[in-house]
Specification:
380 residues; alpha/beta; 2 domains; five-stranded parallel β-sheet; globular
Length: 380
């Protein structure tokens, strides 16, 4: 393939055909568990957060895009580990920059250079916070802005990030374990990340049943709210079709008005906490979706699958239930490869390359350049 002058080394590899780089990144994820969970940087960050909690100071986790969902995943796991002693808050980085907190701030930036995230970390430091970072790039602007850094071992080579989502989930598991003076079994984490392999053929079938709609609505509760947001982003980046994420209860309060037979509703239900109440409400949501003509599908674990009757959702993916992991960690690691493989199969049906998130097209490169053309300071 003749590469145009715009395709510099800053871009992902530009391939003409499958397999896309995104697929190779998904396949690499199980190997991340052991090095991330054993990294001493996690202990340093855990000590930093425990000190803030002991002092009664706020804990914020900040990021943008996939890394914002990574920030949500870190906060979710910290809250599970802290057991009510304090609350960690996931914050959108730009908003955190404008309204910085003291205490402790952890930035999530896969490549370490997201302007809003770095600015949020610097603003937090200015407010008196101790600052940490989870990143795959040790020599980065974000690392220079941090007091303590956890460097994950693999840089995502596709801009439709998958490793960039799983790495902070694993980092959050390690930090939460350190903050609560516990441990996480790397082999259990790796098993959770490989669990979707046996369901891949079923994922392909579900993608075929969903493909062709004009928009997607992804829905979750508990830790699955995070997975729903990540799935919506992956569909928009990879498949190039509008997608929106809603909390389970939120979707039932007015948002149906904009949905119809051109919508695919995808439920994520891998969080087994309070599963009876969540399952009952999810079944109602799915029946309501079918009543307006929407296509429906769901991603379950073996444990949560039996809580929703087969008649309530025909197209379902069931992955093994995670074992020997904290509940939030297990749910996040079970849903991650499943939602990524579902996206990948939808990408295959769409016949597009997900890796450059459409920047092989000039208007989208121009839009990205506009967005990157300077960044306002907090006082601007």
């Amino acid at each position: 393939m003749t590469h145009e002058s715009w395709h510099t080394s800053d871009f992902p590899e530009l391939r003409e055909r499958r397999p896309w780089v995104m697929q190779e990144m998904i396949e690499a994820e199980p190997g991340l568990a052991e090095p991330v969970l054993a990294d001493p940087g996690a202990s340093d960050l855990g000590d930093m957060l425990r000190s803030a909690v002991d002092a009664g100071a706020p804990v914020s986790v900040v990021g943008c895009g996939t890394s914002e969902h990574g920030a949500m995943a870190v906060a979710e796991q910290l809250n599970g580990a802290l057991g009510g002693r304090a609350r960690a808050h996931a914050r959108q980085a730009f908003e955190a920059m404008l309204d910085p907190w003291n205490g402790a701030c952890v930035g999530i930036s896969h490549e370490g250079g997201t302007a809003a995230t770095v600015a949020a970390m610097e603003s937090a430091r200015g407010a008196g916070a101790t600052v940490g970072l989870i990143t795959a790039v040790a020599e980065s602007a974000g690392a220079k802005a941090a007091d303590r850094v956890l460097v994950t071992p693999l840089r995502d080579r596709s801009w439709c990030h998958t490793v960039g989502y799983v790495s902070p989930i694993l980092g959050g598991a390690a930090i939460a374990a350190a903050a609560s003076r516990r441990s996480v079994d790397p082999s259990a984490a790796s098993r959770a990340l490989t669990a979707s392999e046996d369901a891949h053929e079923r994922i392909r079938q579900v993608a075929g049943a969903l493909y062709g709609v004009s928009r997607y609505l992804t829905v979750g509760s508990g830790a699955d709210r995070i997975a729903a947001r990540e799935l919506a982003l992956k569909i928009e980046e990879g498949v190039r079709v509008p997608a929106t994420a809603r909390d389970l209860e939120t979707v039932l309060h007015g948002h149906w008005v904009a949905q119809d037979e051109g919508t695919a509703v995808i439920l994520l239900m891998t969080d087994a906490r309070a599963d009876r109440a969540r399952a009952d409400r999810a079944a109602q949501m799915l029946r309501a979706a079918r009543a307006i003509g929407a296509r429906t599908a769901a991603i379950f674990t073996e444990e949560t699958d039996g809580k929703v009757a087969p008649a309530d959702v025909r197209d379902r993916v069931v992955v093994p239930s995670p074992t020997d992991l904290p509940p939030a960690t297990g749910a996040l690691l079970a849903s991650a490869p499943a939602l990524q493989l579902l996206t990948l199969e939808l990408v295959h049906l769409a016949g597009v390359n997900p890796d450059l998130i459409r920047r092989e097209e000039a208007p989208y490169r121009e839009a990205a350049e506009i967005a990157d053309d300077g960044f306002p300071s907090p006082g601007a």
